[in-house]
């Protein structure tokens, strides 16, 4: 079977030429060009030996996985002893993801299919990624079977042609037509409904399972010469459907999930080949592992904004998409151990509530350029903004080439209306332990334009915690003082951060100092919580001079803050006192006072982000001094 000259080409396909060469090798291996084919096989065997030797040289990493850059990047590897992953880093090369250990029984043609599956998953969006996950999981069960050259090449060609359309309904429709999926009538109906649906993610679970069944039977039918493939594929697909449910039909704000181990900065090693051996060197800059995903819950209740055939379908779409969003976040938190989400848009309330419950830190409204730079530094494929789904454009207007894209545009404008522009809200994430009165700040959600402003809010919360610790320490000392004078002088030792903070402190101190018995005036955790909550509400108002505070309160309620007012920040001066300073803070914390820096992320700026995260997640350590056991 010769190469198909009518196959579409993509200018952004970094593996196109090499894939063409591989297909030529596979299709011509009938005695015409055995030397080229043998050279390819030897190349694959050399990589496998190098990976094995590198892993043994670095650390015994259990189950080895090659990274998303595959066999095309052989300059160096990075091994994480925490995640047991072997990561290939080669700039500009994207290819095969080693979803299972290499085996000598895997024919080279199977790599053609895996390359296309991975490319489909990475390029065609979240809906296609489920196809990639299911197909890869099914093929994982086939590694001991011998696929014919022709079957592998046909599958690779079919997948490559499907990559021409990134829309989910087009992908499903073409999968059913081109691959002649053998499926029961209900499965065929489910695929048709998905293809005609304007809202991705509104189809019920039984139709979703039917879609998976169609895919599995397509794989089984295309490689029917392999006995027992259907049962093995079914087992793998059902396992993948149970563990990797997230991606079918979800579109929304692009989210970067940063794993927990990135915050603790475990040892990572670069492995370089040296004449058949491997040399390791610790890498200190590689601190992030980033995933790309999309979270989109349907919140609109108006048929004018959502394309559905009935009110019942709309209610189902709302409920189903909300449940799927919760499942996605729980999967990221439990299986991927993600504790930070960096989002290019403002997440909907379902996602925010779930993040707060799981203890995931959310930083929203990060610009597309910063997200791309963070992906580049982390070695992850950048976000792709397609012409059909312009979800990452700065404006709310999107292409109207499909009903779904029109819905996205309406949803974006509705989101802007709902939040009232770019405002910052500090969500309370403080809780008290029932036994030991321990206080911890486990959650800070930031609605706002930049990471720089989020850093200022995190720092302000930390300062408020230090003030509470100071108050608790002096109050505990005053409890031991026989004189009641200490209660009246306590307020002079505190640094005021706003009217609400002062009012809350005065109220708590007054109630404690006027109580009949000092023994009953033990330190209560809920009293500190009330002060901290008041401080959280007062901190934004403390960022401006007192005479403008009342005016700002009105603007804050009406969401009419100007850009300059939004970027008013508070800092420590040389004497350790509060100092007001108006400055422009960009999204990476750089100011405009002679130290303007480019928006592009650099290693030092990435370290700033790490510092901000550590500071935010360790606020509980700052208020440990406020813990006094109940008597």
From TrEMBL:
Signal sequence, start to end: none
InterPro entries associated with the record: BBS10, Cpn60/GroEL/TCP-1, GroEL-like_apical_dom_sf, GROEL-like_equatorial_sf, TCP-1-like_intermed_sf
Pfam family, one: Cpn60_TCP1
One biological process term in Gene Ontology: chaperone-mediated protein complex assembly
Any one Gene Ontology molecular-function term assigned to this protein's record: ATP binding
Protein name: Uncharacterized protein
Organism: Hondaea fermentalgiana
Lineage of the species this protein comes from: Eukaryota, Sar, Stramenopiles, Bigyra, Labyrinthulomycetes
């Amino acid at each position: 079977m010769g190469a198909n000259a009518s196959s579409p080409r993509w200018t952004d396909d970094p593996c196109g030429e090499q894939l063409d060469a591989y297909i030529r090798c596979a299709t011509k291996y009938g005695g015409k060009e055995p030397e080229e084919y043998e050279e390819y096989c030897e190349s694959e065997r050399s990589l496998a030996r190098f990976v094995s030797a590198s892993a043994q040289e670095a650390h015994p990493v259990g189950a080895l996985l090659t990274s998303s850059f595959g066999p095309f990047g052989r300059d160096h590897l990075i091994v994480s002893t925490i995640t047991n992953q072997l990561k290939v880093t080669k700039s500009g090369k994207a290819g095969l993801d080693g979803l299972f250990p290499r085996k000598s029984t895997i024919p080279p043609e199977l790599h053609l299919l895996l390359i296309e599956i991975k490319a489909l998953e990475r390029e065609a969006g979240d809906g296609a990624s489920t196809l990639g996950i299911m197909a890869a999981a099914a093929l994982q069960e086939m590694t001991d079977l011998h696929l014919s050259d022709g079957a592998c090449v046909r599958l690779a060609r079919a997948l490559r042609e499907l990559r021409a359309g990134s829309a989910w309904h087009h992908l499903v429709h073409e999968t059913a037509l081109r691959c002649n999926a053998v499926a029961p009538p209900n499965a065929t109906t489910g695929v048709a409904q998905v293809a005609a649906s304007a809202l991705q993610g509104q189809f019920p679970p039984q139709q979703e399972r039917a879609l998976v069944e169609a895919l599995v039977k397509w794989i089984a039918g295309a490689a029917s010469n392999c006995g027992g493939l259907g049962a093995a594929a079914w087992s793998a697909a059902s396992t993948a459907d149970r563990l990797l449910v997230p991606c079918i039909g979800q579109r929304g704000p692009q989210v970067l999930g940063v794993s927990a181990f990135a915050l603790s900065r475990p040892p990572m090693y670069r492995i370089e080949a040296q004449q058949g051996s491997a040399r390791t060197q610790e890498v200190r800059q590689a601190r992030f592992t980033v995933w790309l995903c999309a979270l989109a819950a349907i919140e609109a209740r108006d048929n004018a904004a959502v394309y559905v055939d009935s009110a019942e379908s709309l209610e189902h779409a709302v409920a189903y998409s909300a449940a799927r969003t919760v499942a996605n976040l729980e999967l990221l938190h439990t299986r991927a151990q993600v504790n930070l989400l960096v989002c290019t848009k403002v997440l909907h309330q379902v996602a925010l509530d779930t993040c707060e419950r799981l203890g995931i830190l959310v930083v929203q409204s990060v610009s597309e350029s910063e997200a791309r730079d963070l992906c580049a530094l982390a070695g992850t494929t950048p976000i792709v903004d397609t012409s059909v789904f312009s979800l990452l454009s700065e404006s709310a207007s999107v292409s109207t080439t499909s009903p779904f894209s029109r819905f996205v545009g309406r949803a974006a404008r509705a989101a802007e209306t709902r939040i009232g522009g770019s405002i910052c809200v500090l969500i309370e994430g403080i809780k008290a332990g029932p036994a030991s009165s321990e206080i911890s700040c486990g959650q800070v959600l930031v609605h706002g334009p930049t990471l720089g402003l989020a850093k200022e809010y995190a720092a302000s919360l930390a300062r408020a915690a230090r003030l509470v610790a100071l108050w608790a320490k002096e109050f505990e000392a005053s409890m031991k003082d026989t004189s009641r004078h200490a209660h009246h002088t306590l307020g002079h030792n505190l640094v005021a951060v706003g009217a609400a903070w002062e009012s809350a402190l005065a109220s708590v101190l007054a109630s404690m100092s006027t109580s009949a018995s000092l023994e009953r005036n033990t330190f209560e955790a809920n009293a500190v919580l009330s002060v901290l909550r008041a401080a959280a509400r007062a901190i934004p108002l403390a960022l401006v001079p007192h005479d403008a505070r009342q005016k700002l309160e009105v603007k804050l309620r009406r969401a009419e803050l100007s850009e300059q007012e939004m970027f008013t920040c508070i800092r420590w001066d040389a004497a350790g006192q509060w100092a007001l300073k108006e400055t422009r803070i960009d999204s990476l914390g750089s100011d405009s006072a002679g130290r303007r820096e480019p928006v592009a992320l650099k290693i030092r700026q990435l370290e700033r982000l790490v510092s901000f995260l550590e500071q935010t997640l360790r606020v509980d350590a700052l208020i440990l001094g406020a813990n006094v056991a109940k008597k």
